[in-house]
Design the sequence.
């Protein structure tokens, strides 16, 4: 992974095969991030996401896609060090999916930008 820092912005350019959730957690810890916005895009595989199953309390039904897909939207926030991201993408045969990001492995050219609002 390559990290580029500019003012209050961090750009994470991931190598193929990296665990996106683990990297985000490591960066939050390493930089002491308390609040930030998150956005990104690129290719992923072994994607796990949740779709809303129940509203009160919120409960997600887990979904899994093993093959590589294009993630066109990866948006969320960090609040009190908690990462919350929603995403949408398209896989082979025009399979469209979206929901709450749980985990994924980066493919070629996956990047995430963090706009830092508050640190320790």
Sequence:
């Amino acid at each position: 992974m390559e990290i580029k820092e500019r003012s209050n912005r961090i750009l994470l350019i991931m190598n193929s095969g990296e665990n996106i959730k683990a990297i985000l957690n490591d960066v939050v810890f390493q930089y002491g991030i308390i609040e930030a916005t998150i956005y990104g895009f690129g290719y992923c595989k072994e994607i796990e996401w949740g779709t809303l199953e129940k509203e009160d309390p919120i409960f997600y039904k887990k979904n899994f896609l093993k093959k590589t897909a294009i993630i066109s939207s990866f948006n969320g926030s960090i609040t009190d060090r908690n990462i919350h991201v929603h995403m949408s993408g398209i896989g082979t045969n025009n399979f469209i999916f979206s929901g709450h990001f749980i985990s994924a492995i980066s493919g070629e050219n996956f990047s995430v930008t963090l706009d830092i609002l508050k640190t320790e």
In short: The CA atoms of residues 49 and 63 lie 5 Å apart. The chain has one helix and eight strands. Helices lie at 20-31.
